[in-house]
Amino acid sequence: MAPDVLVWLVNEWGSAPRAAAGEDRAPYPDAGLTTRALTRTADRLHPVFATPDPCDRIGLLNGLLAKTAIRPALEIQDGDPAETWQVEDDDRALTAAAALTLRHQLAAGGPGRLGICEGRRCADAYIDTSPAARRRFCSVTCQNRARVAAWRHQRRSQPGTAQ
Question: Which spans in the chain are helix H?
């Protein structure tokens, strides 16, 4: 699973990001079991992004990997062996794919590269791929809203500033 797809899954289907945004319905028309499975998976993943402690983040992810009972495997692709993975229960495949993506991100960039947006009324997850590793917002939109709010607050608190 691509990291941007993982973040989309958590932000579009997760209960916490949707509640913070004031969204009470599923993002797309009800797809029955699919809707429940996507929400359940997103809700399992969101705490990995939300916990600020790196050890807790790794512990949560290890718990997800254990629950999916994922097993490394090999298969033949174009006549050559290729790495893959398997799960006993197909219902756990989405969570397993997402957990493997997070595992790769944590191993490559460190636990500080995952987070939750600091924007007001936002609980969206992000994976920080910036060179400086200082990302704090899920999007430029949230970042701009925070900057404008800070600027307005500063202007109001300065004596003699007319609004």
Answer: 3-13, 15-20, 33-50, 54-68, 93-109, 140-157
Task: Locate 161 and state its tokens.
Answer: 């500033």
163 pLDDT exceeds 70? Answer: no
What are the Cα distances from residue 119, in Å, to 43, 57, 71, 161?
20, 21, 38, 26
Structure token digits, residue 3: 């990291």
The answer to whether 9 and 41 are in contact (CB under 8 A) is: yes
What is the DSSP-derived secondary structure letter of residue 145? H
> pLDDT of 115-135, one tens digit each?
999 888 899 999 998 888 888
In CATH, what is the architecture of 3-157? Orthogonal Bundle (1.10)
Q: In the numeric block, which tokens belong to residue 24?
A: 């009470």
Query: For residues 3 and 58, what is the distance between their CA atoms, to the nearest angstrom?
Result: 17
User: Tell me, what's the pLDDT at 146?
Assistant: 80
How much is the pTM? 0.81
Tokens standing for 76? 């033949």
